[in-house]
Hints:
Layout: E1 3-7, H1 12-23, E2 27-32, E3 51-55, E4 68-71, H2 78-81, H3 85-106, E5 109-115, H4 142-162, E6 166-171, E7 174-175, H5 186-195, E8 200-203, E9 209-211, E10 213-214, H6 215-226, E11 236-238, E12 243-245, H7 246-257, E13 263-266, H8 281-287, H9 295-307
Parallel strand pairs: 1-2, 1-4, 2-3, 4-5, 5-6, 6-11, 7-10, 8-13
Antiparallel strand pairs: 9-12
Amino acid sequence: MKHILVTGGAGFLGSHLCDALLAAGNYVIALDNYFSGRLENIQHLITHPHFSMIEHDVNNPIFVTVDAIYNLACPASPIYYQHDPVKTVTTNVMGAINMLELAKRNNACILQASTSEVYGDPEVHPQTEDYRGNVNPIGPRACYDEGKRCAETLFFDYHREKHLPIKVVRIFNTYGPRMRADDGRVVSNFIVQALKNEPITVYGQGLQTRSFCYVDDLIQAMIKMMATDSTITGPINIGNPGEFTIIELAKKIIALTGSSSEIIYQDLPIDDPIQRQPDISLAASVLGWKPTIALDEGLKKTIDYFKE
């Protein structure tokens, strides 16, 4: 039985990852400071004999004995990561250093949950792992974008200098049960507004595109990445290459909820990407992975969650 640490373990992705790792027969230690994570996401695991929860901020070192680490600690929605941008940067940078040092002490493999935001507002479409991005380093989103880019730098420097086994995945838009209703992400925003029959807020003309991956598909990819041999470091894109405009998403959610909501338009936020679509050729060839859950199916599951 492996002992696995999941930072951000009470978050949207982290809690689903804990579920999957426990189901595979591991002992799981979840770590979270509950800034954007919620105890209710892991409440069903508290009595599990192979699960432990530690309230802790990754900005501070921690000493535990583990075989592997998944580093997911960082708020991923603009509302939360822009609330305290300095803390967001330090969580990405100091948090990464503390987890890398913990991995080094344990001689443990560590996986970094990076993001498609490292590509910024891309000038290459779809985005491949060798694209270096188009990021504004001084804009309001930079605390997250550049923080994640710096975390990738640290991971590869620890790998080159200290021979630490690392894995880096770049996560594209992901949705599903346990998203926060107040996190400002487009899927949760639209579903909550539709269920309340409130106006659905679309930024710009709604012609910007996103690619939406259901959470179960994404978690499978992360676990497959951790299982690769030591020569596979990444970065590897994981996401669903199906590309939809925001207006298409809004209309889908209105139809699936039977909502009477109208669509209203507001100005685009600063540095909001116009296009976002992963090239997952590398994930397909290296991990033998591709998403299997179509957008309509995943949205129905997510809508059911928010109805409850």
